[in-house]
């Protein structure tokens, strides 16, 4: 019983420590607005919309950006701009910023008509012959992901940003995906398939 009580106490303390304060995050987000906008929806298509993203996912990305900087790129997620932004952040700062942006609504987006057929087929069913897993398996039928599993919300995301990330996963420039799942899928996608998927998820609801 004593061991169980200790474990429960530790879990409770970890949960309390991990809690982010959205109001505190809002006060810390001034520099983030330069690229992500005051509402977290990005000021240019190559920047991600972080409004409405799962808090845990946002927090993990910030930690990974900082980790890459502190390990010379050996670990984490390499990005010179975001790495520099994340370096001075404390874990509480990261939790607060993640809580703030998770509380904001993501803006509407659309899917290009030309990308619906191919994008939808790959998203829903993948390609069994080539070993391409359907996106819906992790990101869900509406692209909302799952917070507990760490899969991000991609519905409504900027298509250009999604395209850049899929290309980075395919080329091995980004390697902070769980069990290399995104790298395994992206490695089998053609340029046309990446374009179709990136545009398709933008209007997925």
TrEMBL record:
Residues 20-105, 114-205 form the Cytochrome c domain. Keywords: Electron transport, Heme, Iron, Metal-binding, Periplasm, Signal, Transport. The keyword Heme applies. Residues 1-18 form the signal peptide. Pfam families: Cytochrom_C (PF00034). InterPro entries: Cyt_c-like_dom (IPR009056), Cyt_c-like_dom_sf (IPR036909), Cyt_C_IC (IPR008168), Cytochrome_c4-like (IPR024167), Cytochrome_c_Oxidase_Subunit (IPR050597). It is found in: Periplasm. Its main location: periplasm. Gene3D superfamilies: Cytochrome c-like domain (1.10.760.10). The keyword Heme applies. This is Cytochrome c4. It comes from Photobacterium pectinilyticum.
